[in-house]
Amino acid sequence: MKSRFHAGDAVTVRAAYPPGHIRTPHYIRGKRGVIERICGEFANPEELAFGRDGLPKRPLYRVRFGQRHVWPDYGGAPEDTVDIEIFEHWLEPAAREAAT
Amino acid sequence: MRRHHDMGGIPDGPVDTSAHDAELWEKRVDAVRNLLGQKNLLRTDEHRRHIENLPPGDYDGLSYYERWILSISNHLLEKGVFTADDLGRKMAEVEAREAKDREHYK
After folding, report:
1. Residue B89's domain is classified under what CATH number?
2. Cross-chain residue pair A21–B45, CB shorter than 8 Å
3. Domain total for chain B?
4. Closest residue of B to A21, CA-based?
């Protein structure tokens, strides 16, 4: 499997808003996180949703985000994080220091 | 734009997590969905797309399996498994049968 990102890489979720069946939550688009792990590669659900084969398979990553970054008014501990599984085509490289 | 179903992070009330029994018709909907999967007539992602495409009022107002049966109906119409006319006639037939049963057991 050829994956563009590896554990520890800083990424930004693309702020795109296409119609259709999208598995990247709205609230995380445009946010910065860090690759926690590569989950494997899977047929693209955005294509499967329309009856197509979803191939080639695409790498899926577990991405970790700081809760305070995602929710500016977050009231919990500053070190709290949220992990979200996101397909590679939704991610762009980001500067490491900006990712928390 | 945020789509209606994609409501993570939007303020709302508590989630009801109490256990409940499924009604017979709900079990039947579950069985139909499983059969359609086995016969490659409905994929999980297709099912989700149809549920997400329900009008916001339906999405909020219908129960879990009511959303499922609407998704399944819309999908099978799209795939040409049955026609709207087939479905309409069958629904009327079932409704008449149920009414007769209710009368019988009154």
Report:
1. 1.10.472.20
2. yes
3. 1
4. B49
